[in-house]
Amino acid sequence: MAGKRRKNNKRFQQLMIMYVVVTILFGSILAVLWAKSSSNKEKLRNEGIESFNGGDYKTAASLFEKSLEEKQWFSAKMDLDTKMYLGACYLRMNRYSDAVECYRQINEKNNGSIDETLLISLTETAESMNEMEKYKGKKADDNMIEQMKNLARTQPYMYLCLASVYNERKETKEAREALENYIKVRPVNSYVAYELSTAMINEKKYAEAKDMLEQGLKASDNNYKDLLNYNRIALLEADGDLDGAFQLATELKEQYPKCEAIQKEYDFLYTRININTTPVNPNSDANETYEPAEPDDSGEESGDEGDGSDESSDEGYDDGSDEGSDDGSDEGFDEPDEGYDDAPGDDYDDEPEEEPSYYEDTDDAA
C-alpha cells in the first residue's frame, strides 16, 4: 500500500512539473503573439508623419526608424510605405547615400504596393544627388558635361546631374532643358517639378512654371511640396501681387513651420506689406506720415526719386529682393538653404487619417 502511494505521489509530481512547463511555454507563446499583433509601430509612424508634414525631417526620420524596428504581424505593406517616408527624410537631410539604400531596399521588397515608375524616379533623384556630392565645390568643365550627356542616353538620372552642373554654372536655360529631357522618360516627381519650375521662373516663363507647379503638387510623392508652394509665392511676387503673395506666405508658414525658405519669405513680405507710416520724428516741421510707393511689376518699391527715373524693373523674381533698399534685404530668388542645391513633402493640408499613406492625393494648390 505504501509503495502504491509513493508511486502515485511520484506520478502526481511529474504531472505538476509538466503542467508548470506547459503553462510557461503557453504563456511565452501568448506573449510573443501579443507583441507581434500589438505594438507601437503605427503610433510611431503617425507621429513621424506629423513631424514630416511640419518639415522636421530629423525627428520624423528617428520616429520612422523606430517604427520599422517594432515587430508586428501583417505590417509588410505599412512598412514599405513608412520606408518611402524615411527615404524622403534622408533626401531632405542631405543623407543621399542613405536615401539610395532605402529606395533600393523598397525595390527589393516591393510587392506591387509601390508604383514602380515613381520608385525608379525617386531612386534616380537620390542617385543624382549622391553622385553630385563627389563634385561639390568643384567647377565642372565642358569635358565633364559631354561625358554626362553621353551617359544620360542610357542612364537618365545623369540628366539630373547635368541640371545641377548647369545651375552651378548659372546656365539656367541649359538646366531647364536637362530637366525637360529627364521628364520625357520618367514621371514628374516633386523634386524635378520644383527645380524645373524654379528654372522657368528665373527665365520669366511664368505660364510654364505655373503648369509645372500644378504637376508637381499632383505628383505621387510629397518630398518637396513645401518648396513647390514656396514657388507659388514667387509667381505671385513676379506678377506684382504682393498682397496675394503675403496672404499665401502667411498660410504656408503655419502649414510648414520648419521650412526656412517660407519663413524667410514671409518675413521679407511682411516688411513690404506692413510698412510703418508713423513719422520717424513726430516733432519735425513737416509732421507728415510716410506714404509707401506703389510696387513695380517685380514687387520692388519704386520710391527712389534721386535720379528722377520712372523705370520699372522687369527682372521677374530674380530681382524681387528689392536690392539696394534701405532695409538691406537681399532675398531674391536664390534657392533656399535647404535640401539639394541649397534647396530645402505627403499630405500637408490635412491631418493623417487611419493608416495614412505616402501616396494619398492632396490639393496643396487649393
Describe the structure.
By secondary structure, this protein is mostly helical. It is 58% helix and 0% strand. The protein contains 14 helices and no strands. It has helices at 2-37, 41-53, 57-69, 76-92, 96-109, 116-132, 142-152, 157-168, 172-182, 190-202, 206-217, 225-238, 242-255, 260-273. Helix 10 (190-202) packs parallel to helix 12, helix 11 packs antiparallel against helix 12 (225-238) and helix 13 packs antiparallel against helix 14. The chain starts with a helix and ends in a 93-residue tail after the last helix.
Tell me the layout of helices and strands.
Layout: H1 2-37, H2 41-53, H3 57-69, H4 76-92, H5 96-109, H6 116-132, H7 142-152, H8 157-168, H9 172-182, H10 190-202, H11 206-217, H12 225-238, H13 242-255, H14 260-273
Beta strand count: 0
- Low-confidence segments: 29-38, 284-335, 337-354, 361-366
The description of the largest β-sheet is: none
Shape, per Cα inertia axes: elongated
Structural class: mainly alpha
Portion of residues in beta strands equals under 5%
Question: Which H/E pattern describes the elements?
Answer: HHHHHHHHHHHHHH
Query: Helical proportion?
Result: 55-70%
Number of helices: 14
- Cα(first) to Cα(last) distance is 92 Å
| Overall radius of gyration | 29 Å
